[in-house]
Amino acid sequence: MRRISNLSFSLIFLLSITLTASGADGTEEEHDSHSSVEGLMRGERLFYGLIDGKFESKACADCHNTVEIDTFNWNPNAWEIAHQYKERSLQEFTKAVLNPSSKTMSTMHQTFNLDVGDVELIKLFLDDFEEHGLSKRKPVINKIFLFILLGVVLTWVILDIFFLKRVKRRYILGIIFLVALAWQVKLLYDAGTSLGRQENYEPDQPIKFSHVVHAKDMQIDCQYCHTTVAHSKHAGIPDVNICWNCHSIVREGSHSGKHQINKVVDAWESGIPIQWIKVYNLQDHVFFSHAQHVTVGKVECLTCHGNIEEMDRVRQLGDLSMGWCINCHRDTEIQFFDNEFYTQYKELHKLMESGEIDRVTAELTGGTECSKCHY
Question: Is 20 part of a structural domain of the chain?
Answer without folding.
Answer: no
